[in-house]
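Quick one from the shared queue. A colleague (R.T.) flagged BRCA1-associated ATM activator 1 isoform X4 as missing a structural entry in our internal table.

Convert sequence to structure tokens.
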Amino acid sequence: MRGPAEGRRGPRARDWPACAQKIVCHIEDSLCSAATPQVTQALNVLTTVFGHCRGLWTQGLWVRLSPLVARLLEKDPVPASHSLVDLLLSVARSGPRGAAGGVGRSSSVLSSDRGLWETLAQTLSHLSPTQAGPLALGILKLQDCPQALRTQAFGILLQPLACVLEAAAQAPGTPGLLEGAAGDSMTVDTLLSSKSACVGLLCCALAHLGLLQPLPQRPSPWPQVPLLGAVVTILRLCSGSAAPTSDVGGRLCAILVGCGRVQRAALDFLGALSQGTGPQELVTQVFSILLEYLMSPESSSMVLKKAFQATLRWLLSSSKTPGCCDLDPHTQQFLRELLPVLQKRLCSPCWEVRDSGLEFLTQMTRQWGGRTGFRQALLASEVPELTRQLLRDPESYVRASAVTATGQLSGWGLRATPASPERPGAQQESLLGELLHILSTDSEGFPRRAAMQVCTEWLRDGRADVAEDPERFVAGVLQAASRDLDWEVRAQGLELALVFLEQLLGQRGSRCPYSVGLPETAPPGVLAQALQVLCRVQLFEFAFRALFDCDRPVAQKSCDLLLFLRAKAASCGSLQEAGDSPSVASVEATLQRWQAGEQGQPLGYLEPGAIVAVLRSVDLEGLRDTLAESSDHVEKSPQSLLQDVLAAVGVLGENEADCY
């Protein structure tokens, strides 16, 4: 149906080519088949057609086939329900309409015969609650559909949570939930039929509502308070702290207690609900259940991770009170209760728990490091000292997280109290030495990457201990990075080198390596001094070696750095070059050996003029273009693909002539 005549194809089947009519007849036979796989294939073909074709003829195709699609709903169970949902949503999104039509045009075309919307409503009624969930979510994401259908779809998603509220006797009649969401016997039967069915339905409902919550087209008004109550109730049922009075509530509690899958889904949705508001009493219940999960010895490592994430989101949302620059009393009290729990988790025998605790601490410090209430509570705890001790954790992931957390704490001045009061900087010096020790000696890549990132942040932020002797600091870091086998560490070392170069030129934060054609002018004296410093810290030794690195991202970053520096030198014409001096010839010969794979003679100390001459003699643009090509550009050439075809059929001993 595609091609030059596509725009002239009418919706009537008699206008179609004979081959297209045969295909439609075959699809009709497949939709009427008693074999579910054949029905599934037909539905999948139609899903693809309506998702990719925009011709007027698709209207006629839907009018012809929609009765057969609707007839599938008369079967029990409905065959190929997942494929049926995909087809209906594909039709609703892209719609059987003209090529210029939009979503609104689709609605007007189809609502005239009420075909699509009636089929969607019937499908919601005939599918099981678990099967109907994806269809309900897809309907609510549509930009334009009847309000009655949206109400029905939202009710499908709310039914499992409404049943939980009723069963737990937390909110008789479920005020605030949509009418029709509660008391659905099919949903109750599904929840109580088996543990797997109950868990599957609740997890799907929570996930779908979580996806719907941030969307602009979500139902309004959004039942924030009932949803919060339902999620808190589910978490209590899972922890065993709920005390339901009804038989249904007791059976639900027996099914859900200790179910980690539902706990994780509920905590995810609880975190998403932090973007809304709620009465203080309910918010207090939210923090109470979060603290209960963080304290519980029954919480698995993944549940604790989700609990930490939800806690972070609620703490950050609660601190957005207009006109308030510090924490409110409720948040401050929760923080005092939370930090001892965090201390305990940082000492957990499970490394995943220690890692989750450190990630939570890092995010909290990044957001609240300057708030007086947070600073006082944190410094009064043992958390900073425990974080410092975890730098020597046996697990590399934990060491990496400890490095990042320590960097954040130190950046805000939230480190542990120095052991020697007369030398307040002693512990900070020790911390810097410990990071360099990790960077130089740690056997795993993750801690070294984290250490390099912290060093870069400290240099960029102008930390006092780094600013005292930046040359020594940068030289030590680059020396460790140049020997590192991890390409990400080497790449981060080049980022640190670029930050250092910016600071030397007095243009902090002004560079863009990809805009080297428009450099800001640096005075000749400043540039000459900067080049001397760069030579002393052996930055050029590191950068030129990285230029021929076997890992392309490292070579690209080095190329950008040297192009940036060359552009700065070009803007300063009075800087004298060394010309054809022996040092320049020696450097060029050394670079050629490095490019050939030899890693021997170091560059040694070079004069600024020699550096400028080498930068101008090396074809950095050509190297950048080469590095920009994909590593498999040769393998993806037409000739290479034909060779692959020949190789594939060569073992068959036939069809070789056809392939040529």
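The radius of gyration is 33 Å.
The first helix runs from residue 18 to 31.
Added to the table.
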